[in-house]
């Protein structure tokens, strides 16, 4: 695939190399608003309305004309305006209109004076403060102009977008169909949960992690289970995934020893590169394509599988799904303890970030072995240590990336 596989490939080169080849592969459809939660917008949404649609009051108070106030004498209340019940009567000189929040301001209103700045004596209203022109009036179109782009194509709809779209009267939205992702785990030693273990067996944990992350990303998952290290069965699984899914994600079988075998099969079926990434955890990684389906081969070690999915596969899936992708914020924090590190790879250590007396502090979750799960479940962030950095002393500043939506 045109990459140097002799040395270790930097993460950003791998990411860029993948993203360059990928394009959105999901058609669009029109869905009723409530069903569109979690989907990706297929086109920009332009506002069919001005928001607010009419000039209205931001306060409970009185609509006034500044000329009437100039005399400095009380005004007579001509009537009342409520939200949904505009004032429609006459408005003679020397009068004001009682108005509630959200009510349309009567024609000719210069300002709304809040109730707290007035004194009422029956219908005679005394104004204690001189309002500025336009005070407490929300102008038509001040939030959103008619025709303005309110949401861009590629936005994934969250609960934050739902009320916005509803406020514009939008009943259906153009969204992409979900990306269909086939997954399987490879390894003779793997057993599904709910079955007993023989000596030498372990439970297949990766599939549950990968599935959970796919669910968070809004993908449709085709779970092909556990495939033993057997050429015929692997071949059949690859062919099924190629026929039924947009993407295939496997775990295991891409490290030295097994890779040659998987490699042979994948070379025959498609075009796959086996990479050694300059990251820790997560060195072995495969990427390429079967005739109809993109392929991501994650390392078997559980923590490596989760980290490579998060850092590499997630942006790739977003691109295939038509979603704009932004990496989570990276922050600076002071480590409260020394961190083991040898130069050569970019480390994604698992850490616990907290607010200390002098700012953000981070500590390690303990063993950073890529087979130790507790390092992930107790963590709330990555501690990202630069490739050439060595051992880190307590008190040094490090880059942290709080876990975002995928790992929380
Ligand atoms: P592999 O990449 O297949 O050589 O696997 C590396 C390590 O990860 C081995 O210790 C495997 O037993 C372990 N492993 C592979 N796949 C899984 C899985 N699905 N769940 C848990 N551990 C796994
Ligand atoms: Mg294996």
Description:
- The chain has 408 residues and is α/β, with parallel strands linked by helices.
- Helices cover 20% and strands 30% of the residues.
- The chain has a six-stranded mixed beta sheet with strand order 7-4-6-5-9-8.
- Helix 1 packs parallel to helix 7.
- The radius of gyration is 30 Å and the shape is elongated.
- The N terminus is likely disordered.
- It binds adenosine monophosphate (AMP) and magnesium ion.
- Magnesium ion binds next to loops.
- The site of adenosine monophosphate has 19 residues, from helix 4.
Summarize this, please?
By secondary structure, the chain is of the alpha/beta class. It has helices at 11-21, 66-69, 161-167, 206-216, 231-244, 259-269, 302-321, 374-377; strands spanning 28-32, 45-46, 56-57, 61-64, 75-81, 95-99, 111-114, 118-121, 124-127, 137-138, 149-151, 172-176, 180-186, 190-191, 202-203, 220-227, 247-251, 271-276, 279-280, 284-289, 294-298, 331-335, 346-356, 359-364, 381-385, 397-402.
